[in-house]
Design goal:
The structure holds 2 protein chains of 2 kinds.
Chain A lengths: L7 H27 L6 H23 L1 H22 L7 H19 L3 H23 L5 H27 L8 H27 L14 H22 L4 H29 L14 H23 L1
Helix pairs in contact in A: 1-2, 1-7, 2-3, 3-4, 3-6, 4-5, 4-6, 5-6, 6-7, 6-10, 7-8, 7-9, 7-10, 8-9, 9-10
Chain B lengths: L1 H25 L1 E4 L10 E5 L5 H9 L8 E6 H4 L3 H11 L2 E3 L11 H8 L3 E4 L17 H6 L6 E8 L1 H4 L12 E5 L9 H16 L10
Chain lengths: 312, 217
């Protein structure tokens, strides 16, 4: 059996996701054939991109821990690059930006070594102190504060936060029927499902704007509908994929749904500030990688520390 | 025979080095790729901030077409060292051009031969990479090259961000996602002033579609 090293429940979870994706593709196919006059290019691109995202993710998850760590390190690289490209950096800081990239292999090396202490302070402490020092050596003081802030924030968002997903893979113990993959699947599935549910509830019932200055399309009805959906789903699947009890699963659902919403609007504010619609066009139909990862930037560390506090 | 060897070298270079570096390590936001001319005679008039500009253009072409794209490059810069000269002429397939300023009769001989061969010329009308992320004054050479050619279309192309990734005079390559926007074919023009005005207008228009460009940067 090629998949025998993967815990049983995680295999079922992956099969379920693929069934959901097949269903969504069939629905999309039927819709665009019923209304051939309308343009469904974006919907079609979106579905195809989902196949790519999920296909690649599952491929690396199945290949094991090291492959998964490489996968998320590469995602961090793409996200950091995208972020640094849309914000302004000073030409003088090119070397410092280079060091920011070097933090990626280091951070994921701590993950692969399961060196929790280093993993958790490397970027918030050491890189935080290193960036301004390296900038001082260059000596350009005009715009120093903003440049140092932007660089550190960029690494926190795209490397520190995202690396928590990889660390879920290597947490020891946990649920023997689901393993580390179970936690990763649980987090990723609920975060993405939360985006979809908030969108659908908002479309169905949306009346009262929740944060009109940042995202005029977000409503209280969408947020609360998503919160309810995710809380219930999270509670029911928690015992299968995680060491959490059902009650703790409900709490995890609240954390993921709320955190996902906040991550989404934080990146929306970044885009508003820069007056751009998408962060890039790497993923057809979705935009840039940050447009897809926005919620995860919040849910990954929040969910990780919730589980870590309770079980590890 | 020599042409085949050159073509194979170029395909290998683009497939093994250019495409992986440009598309994965650097990363591009490509806009209006379908406007890229795949058949000559045509001239791509791009802004110039980095050596990467040429590599980015190659990365956009399918491997079966890369031999058609011929960068027009400064003879004084690219032919000064024997290794770089060999590489530029035989692998990249540049058309060397003298930048001394005097307009000799056969200055564009090789360019015309290439255009007659339905090649696509890559020309940087600024003539130099200049300062990062700034468009320098456009030169008139492009006009003298194509004033008598009715068969050749000129496509303006704007890149942005490459001056951050690898600016002039720097050896350290730092990854940044860059923008590349392909414009529409330029309309007819009567003199060099008109051509340069058309080009500048197109560049500033295309610049607005660049994600990495902020007016208040």
């Amino acid at each position: 059996m090629p998949f025998s090293h993967i815990p049983e429940h995680s295999i079922y979870a992956m099969i379920t996701v693929i069934i959901v994706l097949i269903t969504a593709s069939i629905i999309q196919f039927i819709i665009s054939h019923k209304h051939p006059d309308k343009d469904y290019t974006e919907l079609r691109q979106r579905t195809i991109s989902w196949w790519w995202i999920i296909g690649l993710l599952f491929l690396f998850l199945v290949m094991g821990r090291t492959a998964t760590i490489f996968f998320f390190a590469f995602i961090s690289f793409l996200a950091l690059k995208e972020f640094l490209s849309i914000v302004s950096t000073r030409q003088a800081d090119r070397t410092v930006v280079f060091w920011a990239y070097i933090s990626i292999p280091l951070q994921y090396f701590w993950v692969s070594e399961a060196w929790y202490g280093m993993f958790i302070i490397f970027i918030p402490v050491y890189l935080f102190l290193f960036i301004p020092m390296r900038m001082v050596l260059i000596g350009e003081t005009e715009g120093f504060i903003k440049a140092a802030g932007v660089l550190h924030w960029a690494v926190m968002l795209t490397v520190f936060s995202v690396s928590h997903i990889a660390y879920l893979m290597i947490l020891p113990g946990g649920n023997p029927l689901a393993g580390g993959i179970g936690l990763v699947l649980y987090l990723l599935f609920l975060t993405q499902f939360n985006d979809v549910s908030q969108y659908i509830w908002g479309k169905l019932l949306g009346q009262h704007k929740i944060i009109p200055k940042v995202s005029p399309n977000k409503t209280w009805e969408g947020f609360l509908g998503g919160l309810l959906t995710i809380t219930l789903t999270a509670g029911f699947i928690a015992p299968y994929l995680t060491p959490l009890t059902q009650l703790q699963g409900f709490a995890a659902g609240v954390i993921i749904s709320t955190g996902g919403f906040i991550g989404d609007v934080v990146i929306s504010s970044v885009k508003r500030d820069l007056r751009i619609k998408d962060c890039g066009n790497l993923i057809p139909g979705h935009g840039g990688i940050l447009d897809r990862m926005d919620s995860l930037i919040y849910t990954a560390p929040l969910f990780f520390h919730f589980v870590y506090y309770l079980y590890f | 025979m020599k042409q085949i060897v050159k073509r194979i070298l170029k395909i290998l270079f683009v497939a093994v080095i250019v495409k992986p570096i440009i598309l994965i390590i650097l990363g591009l936001n490509i806009k209006d790729r379908q406007k890229l001319p795949l058949k000559g005679p045509a001239i791509i008039a791009a802004n110039h901030n980095s050596h990467l500009d040429t590599m980015v253009m190659f990365s956009l072409y399918p491997l079966s077409k890369v031999h058609k794209l011929r960068p027009v490059a400064a003879a004084d810069y690219f032919l000064c060292n024997p290794f770089i000269a060999w590489f530029s002429l035989n692998v990249i397939g540049i058309i060397p051009l003298s930048r001394s300023g005097s307009i000799k009769k056969d200055l564009f001989k090789e360019c015309h031969e290439a255009l007659d061969n339905e090649d696509i010329l890559l020309i940087f009308p600024e003539g130099t990479r200049g300062e990062p992320e700034k468009t320098s004054k456009l030169k008139k050479g492009l006009y003298y090259l194509c004033k008598d050619r009715t068969d050749t279309k000129i496509i303006p192309v704007m890149t942005h961000g490459l001056g951050r990734a690898l600016p002039r005079g720097e050896a350290l390559f730092v990854p940044f996602t860059c923008d590349i926007v392909i414009g529409d074919e330029l309309p007819a023009f009567n003199n060099s002033k008109e051509l340069l005005a058309l080009l500048s207008k197109n560049y500033s228009q295309l610049l607005k579609s660049c994600l990495t460009y902020q007016e208040n940067r």
